[in-house]
Design brief:
Peptidase_M28; carboxypeptidase; alpha/beta; 2 domains; Aminopeptidase; eleven-stranded mixed sheet; golgi apparatus; metal-binding; secreted; about 475 residues; Glucose Oxidase, domain 1; elongated; binds zinc ion
Amino acid sequence: MKLLPLLCLSALLVGCGGEQTPPNQTAGALTDEQLRTAAQLRDEMLASNVAWEVVEDLTTEVGARMPGTPSDAKGVEWMEQRFRDLGFDKVTLEPVEYPLWERHHEMANVVAPFEQPLAITALGGSVGTNGVLVAPVVYFATIDDLQAAADEEVAGKIVFINKRMEKTIDGSGYGPVVAGRSGGAKVAGAKGAVAVLIRSVGTDSDRFAHTGMMRYDEDIPKIPAAALSNPDADQVERLLQRGALTVSIDISAGFTGTYTGHNVIAEVTGSRWPEEVIVIGGHLDSWDLGTGALDDGAGVAVTTAAAHRLLSEDARPGRTIRMVAFANEEQGLIGAYAYAAAHETEIAQHFLGSESDFGAGRVWRYDTNVSEALLPSFEQIFPILEPLGIERGGLESGGGPDIIPLQQLGIPVVRLSQDGTDYFDYHHTANDTLDKIDPEALNQNVAAWITLVYLASHIPAEGN
Ligand SMILES: [Zn+2]
């Protein structure tokens, strides 16, 4: 018997179940047959067209889906119809209310010493300039430097924050830079600045500015905030090295009321424990500049394709798979919090949550955050993922942005982490378009998702 684990590891892709347990490790509860089925589904999905069709149709027939815009409503209608066309067992809409922010126009120019236009985009949530604002520019390498500056250095000026984002596979360069985007206007406004310009939170050197959400404090003057494309930030840096710089900014944007959007939900009813759910999905909304292909049309497409395959009798999940196309992730996980609030009474029936929201790069790591009791079964999933080029990651994973509210309520989560090396070249820009998606990488995602979701749905939990 002691030889069996070794034999299993070397001879079988599907791993070992039953009594074939390595010493000092509890057996997972998935059967060999379930593992074999998952491997077949995995291989089959590498040649599927469903995900590509979803993201192509969504980005072509709807395009950008900024919260509260007419295309937000169009996107919801489109998604509901697509779920129905794909034959999901149950399709529902759940209302989500949010503040409506509108972008009308945005322009910036160097006034002196060398007149020229600058490529900018207003940050989400920003107020407008109320006409053309002209002021000298003051340089800060980071938001911390701005924080440390005396008020008189900043008052009456346009603050420029120059921190550049680093390119990494896991997007770890984003966090340290995004503070300048979300909080720059608060810090600058408190010191009397008239506007803030940041270097885009992005890793490209294209002339596309990256938008994204920013915040005000109610008791601090609200000043307009915009991002410069990376080459334009370089230009501003060089201009400042030559002496005093004056820039004009003309932004028309702002909050104009509230809007009711929707989470669009599709279910595959579980065959063994239908009352227990696994929440998967992506966010249906996007920013307005591109067509929201990578962020997050791809995530919606990948999870829809995986869930759709599980509708067939030969692939029925044990638990119910609840595919959520979340509303308004971009402006503060608003759909995700609405989902958690609407399902508060059935939180205990949520077995697992996981979202795809990091573009369309290949899945390269499998991260988990589940109970010790369930971990051996989740470990059984890994050998089926591994042939897709996936590594085993850590045990303290998040489940994706829209899963945060569920994780806060104690729901186990996993993440199929994607290669995000190029993600922030396009993130929140006009350049986030369908051509950035590699269909083969997209299908590798679907293959990983179906493996995870099918197997997780069959893991017996306590009491089952
Ligand atoms: Zn996203």
